[in-house]
Amino acid sequence: MNIRASVFVVRQPHDPDAPQSAFLRQYRALSQLPACIAPKPHLYLRDWMVVDYLPGAVKTYLPDTNELAGLLYYLHQQPRFGWRITLLPLLELYWQQSDPARRTVGWLRMLKRLRKAREPRPLRLSPLHMDVHAGNLVHSASGLKLIDWEYAGDGDIALELAAVWVENTEQHRQLVNDYATRAKIYPAQLWRQVRRWFPWLLMLKAGWFEYRWRQTGDQQFIRLADDTWRQLLIKQ
Question: Which of 3, 60, 172, 199 sees the fewest Cβ atoms within 10 Å?
Answer without folding.
Answer: 60
